[in-house]
Amino acid sequence: MNKADWGNKAVEYFDSGYNCAESVFKALCEAIGKEANPSVVSGFGGGVGRSDSLCGALSGAVAALGLWVDRLSQGKNEGKERVYQLVGRMVREFREAVGDVNCTGITGLNLSTEEGYAQFRAANRHATHCAPAVRKSVELALTLIQAE
After folding, report:
1. Closest CA to 137 of 2, 21, 1
2. Least C-beta-crowded within 10 Å: which of 12, 21, 82, 131?
3. What is the chain's Cα-based Rg?
4. CA triplet 97, 101, 104: central angle to 5 degrees?
5. Using CA atoms, how far apart are residues 93 and 64, in angstroms rounded to an integer?
6. Residue 88 CB: number of other CB atoms within 10 A?
7. Which of 62, 34, 22 is nearest to 144 (CA)?
8. What is the pLDDT of residues 41-98, one digit of tens each?
9. Neighbours of 43 (CB within 10 A)
10. Residue 73 pairs with which residues in a beta bridge?
11. What is the pLDDT of residue 74?
């Protein structure tokens, strides 16, 4: 599959009940041939537990990039520098493509409040704002991996 197909696969997971972080992490792990349980990133969904923080789709991609680099097998310092550079590019490109790295900036709503989350659901921001971020994070991560 190509990166667009993997992005669509992540959206399928997202639409089936996985959260944003789990969906991205699961699709990317499959794409890079790593076995990993998406539950390890469950808490990152909704901007880190709906705390109005870093987008879960981006967090899931960051976690998968860490698995892909596997810094400890390369020597602690070399691998650490490599993953930092790769993740730094991921964050910059995600921000450029999606407009922000935090859930509130992406959705226009504060998911850490009951009112904001209710508005999120009523306005179907899952489909209109979050699904595109899920897709884009997978595509960007795979672009970075392929460029390595």
Report:
1. 21
2. 12
3. 15
4. 115
5. 16
6. 10
7. 62
8. 999 999 999 998 999 999 999 999 999 998 767 666 788 888 999 999 999 999 999 9
9. 15
10. none
11. 66
Indicate the residue type of 16. S
Alpha carbon 112 to its chain's center: 19
Tokens describing residue 43? 């808490």
Kindly state the tokens that stand for 79.
């691998």
Q: Is the pTM of this model over 0.85?
A: yes
> The tokens 């899931």 sit on which residue?
60
Place of tokens 């097998």: 73
